């Protein structure tokens, strides 16, 4: 089996990597939260900072009266084989501190950077790593001291704010609670024990620490508490003797302070029998041993979480796309594949797999017939206009039998009205196709990471649609003009085989000259022309949609990006790379995912190797 130090050291390493990558919060349980850590909880001036310094063996925390710890301090201790001691902050990763007085100043400065030089608090943690051969591998979280009253300069909500912040850490099932209580106060009033009891009623995660044993009134002791009679916990109570204020003022070395602490317990008549289980050195080893036990128990669940997260990260990488190859051929292939993905979705819109294509049918079934009905044939074929056109067509020589030139002019004028609805149908379908291009680009997941390529495809597709529109416009105008260029003779031959109505009594006899001014005669001409135009309208109502679909919809399905493919194939590698220029935020997101993926895979392999070898 792996040694305790190697397993806990690995967990510390993984926690630090998680912190660097920002993987220490959010929805669900992050790997950082799944790994055990120790939260130091206590009231203000309970001796929390002194306990931490005793465990580390260094004087490095800010001191003062009132609320000193105003931001959580995530302290990771890394045991080294040899060499000197040094510290590193996450917010200053390239700076190594060997002077621990400078560490104290940096903590104070970094606290003020967020909270200002006030007595306010912030839940943004400071991350500090200390490397030393004199520490055990541990992750400790120093939290602001619990308080009962807001002092001058603090918000009224400070009491509740601090408690909520502390709770947010100690409520996590993987958090070990180090409840600090001063021995010279009644344990029943301990803020730390009260909170620990609420979040950990069984006491499985709580370690009790009594500080200031040397400051108790003469004739009193805390043996009942330390022996578990006054308040029982599942884990043993540990007594700590911190440095006195005089020692702090004299800068007494922490190693000397530890020796004095051992001597105090060994020579104490009250605690001599507990000396082997007292002191900061024993506390550090106790916590480290318990951490190892907790880690071993939770390795299966940690591995399960890691595997689940690896699957999720791989899925997200697949969704946003893997890194782009540097090879020009691979880039060309990728561009073509992305275009095909867009083309598939575009065709699905047209063919009914996705909404939108039905709007084209709406143009033919609703818009075109409605436009044809509104054409001004009644005005064009009014008696007055018929007479005017026929008379002008006859010129100086009135027609002899039938006003053929007048018929042709009336028919040509009527047919010309069809050009408007025909072109409007072309434009309406064009705008539907443009909208489907826009929607298809937006719905092509693979394209979302390439804004430049999106613009290139949109430009190429819209240029193609413009060409298709122009060809379609020419075609439908030809259809209309064809109806004018050659009239259906049989239609007019049938008109002469139909019996004419007999003229009413006393009516003037019909004749070429009289017909020019006879309302019935003019009405018949208008009626014949209208019947012919109605036949033409029925024909165009069917042929215009055919032409539009053939020239625009069919071509959009067949060759929307044909010119674009030809252009791309001739482009240099640099231009291909520019087309695959990604959104910087997406590139950053992929980089972060790749780093997290590497972290999780490495963590899984290292935990397996260390835990079970």
Automatic annotation (TrEMBL):
<keyword id="KW-0505">Motor protein</keyword>
<dbReference type="InterPro" id="IPR030381">
    <property type="entry name" value="G_DYNAMIN_dom"/>
</dbReference>
<dbReference type="InterPro" id="IPR003130">
    <property type="entry name" value="GED"/>
</dbReference>
<keyword id="KW-0132">Cell division</keyword>
<dbReference type="Pfam" id="PF02212">
    <property type="entry name" value="GED"/>
</dbReference>
<dbReference type="GO" id="GO:0003924">
    <property type="term" value="F:GTPase activity"/>
</dbReference>
<feature type="domain" description="GED">
    <location>
        <begin position="522"/>
        <end position="613"/>
    </location>
</feature>
<keyword id="KW-0963">Cytoplasm</keyword>
<dbReference type="GO" id="GO:0051301">
    <property type="term" value="P:cell division"/>
</dbReference>
<keyword id="KW-0131">Cell cycle</keyword>
<feature type="domain" description="Dynamin-type G">
    <location>
        <begin position="32"/>
        <end position="300"/>
    </location>
</feature>
<dbReference type="Pfam" id="PF01031">
    <property type="entry name" value="Dynamin_M"/>
</dbReference>
<dbReference type="InterPro" id="IPR022812">
    <property type="entry name" value="Dynamin"/>
</dbReference>
<dbReference type="GO" id="GO:0005737">
    <property type="term" value="C:cytoplasm"/>
</dbReference>
<keyword id="KW-0342">GTP-binding</keyword>
<dbReference type="InterPro" id="IPR019762">
    <property type="entry name" value="Dynamin_GTPase_CS"/>
</dbReference>
<keyword id="KW-0206">Cytoskeleton</keyword>
<comment type="similarity">
    <text>Belongs to the TRAFAC class dynamin-like GTPase superfamily. Dynamin/Fzo/YdjA family.</text>
</comment>
<dbReference type="InterPro" id="IPR020850">
    <property type="entry name" value="GED_dom"/>
</dbReference>
<feature type="region of interest" description="Disordered">
    <location>
        <begin position="498"/>
        <end position="519"/>
    </location>
</feature>
<dbReference type="GO" id="GO:0005525">
    <property type="term" value="F:GTP binding"/>
</dbReference>
<protein>
    <submittedName>
        <fullName>DYNAMIN-like 1C</fullName>
    </submittedName>
</protein>
<keyword id="KW-0378">Hydrolase</keyword>
<dbReference type="GO" id="GO:0016020">
    <property type="term" value="C:membrane"/>
</dbReference>
<dbReference type="Pfam" id="PF00350">
    <property type="entry name" value="Dynamin_N"/>
</dbReference>
<comment type="subunit">
    <text>Forms homodimer and may homooligomerize and heterooligomerize to form the phragmoplastin complex. Binds to PHIP1.</text>
</comment>
<dbReference type="InterPro" id="IPR027417">
    <property type="entry name" value="P-loop_NTPase"/>
</dbReference>
<keyword id="KW-0547">Nucleotide-binding</keyword>
<dbReference type="GO" id="GO:0009524">
    <property type="term" value="C:phragmoplast"/>
</dbReference>
<dbReference type="GO" id="GO:0005874">
    <property type="term" value="C:microtubule"/>
</dbReference>
<dbReference type="InterPro" id="IPR000375">
    <property type="entry name" value="Dynamin_stalk"/>
</dbReference>
<dbReference type="GO" id="GO:0008017">
    <property type="term" value="F:microtubule binding"/>
</dbReference>
<dbReference type="GO" id="GO:0000266">
    <property type="term" value="P:mitochondrial fission"/>
</dbReference>
<keyword id="KW-0493">Microtubule</keyword>
<dbReference type="InterPro" id="IPR001401">
    <property type="entry name" value="Dynamin_GTPase"/>
</dbReference>
<dbReference type="InterPro" id="IPR045063">
    <property type="entry name" value="Dynamin_N"/>
</dbReference>
């Amino acid at each position: 089996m792996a040694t305790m130090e190697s397993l806990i050291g690995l967990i510390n390493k993984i926690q630090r990597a998680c912190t660097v990558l920002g993987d220490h919060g959010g929805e669900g349980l992050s790997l950082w939260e799944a790994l055990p850590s120790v939260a130091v909880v206590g009231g203000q001036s309970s001796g929390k900072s002194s306990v931490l310094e005793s465990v580390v063996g260094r004087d490095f925390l800010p001191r003062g009266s009132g609320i000193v710890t105003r931001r959580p301090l995530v302290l990771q201790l890394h045991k080294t084989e040899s060499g000197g001691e040094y510290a590193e902050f996450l917010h200053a990763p390239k700076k190594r501190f060997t002077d621990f007085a400078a560490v104290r100043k940096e903590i104070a400065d970094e606290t003020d950077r967020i909270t200002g030089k006030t007595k306010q608090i912030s839940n943004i943690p400071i991350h500090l790593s200390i490397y030393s051969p004199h520490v055990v591998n541990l992750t400790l979280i120093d939290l602001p001291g619990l308080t009962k009253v807001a002092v001058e300069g603090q918000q009224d909500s400070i009491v509740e704010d601090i408690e909520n912040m502390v709770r947010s850490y100690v409520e996590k099932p993987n958090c070990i609670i180090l409840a600090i209580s001063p021995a010279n106060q009644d344990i029943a009033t301990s803020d730390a024990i009260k909170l620990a009891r609420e979040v950990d009623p069984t006491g499985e995660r709580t370690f009790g620490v009594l500080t200031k044993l040397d400051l108790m009134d003469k004739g009193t002791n805390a043996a009942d508490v330390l022996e578990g009679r006054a308040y029982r916990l599942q884990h043993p109570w540990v007594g700590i003797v911190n440095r006195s204020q005089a020692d702090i003022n004299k800068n007494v070395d922490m190693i000397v302070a530890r020796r004095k602490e051992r001597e105090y317990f060994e020579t104490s008549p009250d605690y001599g029998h507990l000396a082997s289980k007292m002191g900061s050195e024993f506390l550090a080893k106790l916590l480290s041993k318990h951490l190892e036990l907790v880690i071993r128990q939770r390795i299966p669940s940690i591995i399960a979480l890691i595997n689940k997260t690896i699957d999720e990260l791989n899925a997200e990488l697949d969704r946003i796309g893997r890194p782009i190859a540097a090879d020009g051929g691979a880039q060309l292939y990728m561009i073509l594949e992305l275009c095909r993905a867009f083309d598939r979705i575009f065709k699905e819109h047209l063919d009914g797999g996705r909404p939108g294509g039905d709007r084209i049918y709406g143009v033919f079934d609703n818009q075109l017939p409605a436009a044809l009905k509104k054409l001004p044939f009644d005005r064009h074929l009014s008696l007055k206009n018929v007479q005017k056109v026929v008379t002008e067509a006859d010129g100086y020589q009135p027609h002899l039998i039938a006003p053929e030139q007048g018929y042709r002019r009336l028919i040509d004028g009527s047919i010309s009205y069809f050009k408007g609805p025909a072109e409007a149908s072309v434009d309406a379908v064009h705008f539907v196709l443009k909208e489907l291009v826009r929607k298809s680009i937006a719905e092509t997941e693979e394209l979302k990471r390439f804004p430049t390529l999106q613009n290139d495809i949109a430009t190429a597709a819209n240029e193609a649609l413009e060409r298709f529109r122009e060809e379609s416009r020419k075609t439908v105008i030809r259809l209309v003009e064809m109806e004018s260029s050659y009239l259906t003779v049989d239609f007019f031959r049938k008109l002469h085989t139909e019996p004419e109505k007999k003229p009413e009594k006393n009516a003037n006899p019909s004749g070429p000259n009289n017909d020019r001014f006879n309302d019935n005669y003019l009405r018949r001409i208008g009626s014949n022309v209208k019947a012919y135009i109605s036949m033409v309208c029925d024909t165009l109502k069917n042929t215009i949609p055919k032409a539009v679909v053939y020239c625009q919809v069919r071509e959009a399905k067949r060759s929307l990006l044909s010119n674009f493919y030809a252009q791309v194939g001739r482009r240099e590698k640099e231009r291909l790379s520019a087309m695959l220029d990604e959104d910087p935020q997406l590139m950053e997101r992929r980089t972060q995912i790749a780093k997290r993926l590497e972290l999780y895979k490495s963590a899984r392999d290292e935990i397996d190797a260390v835990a079970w070898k």
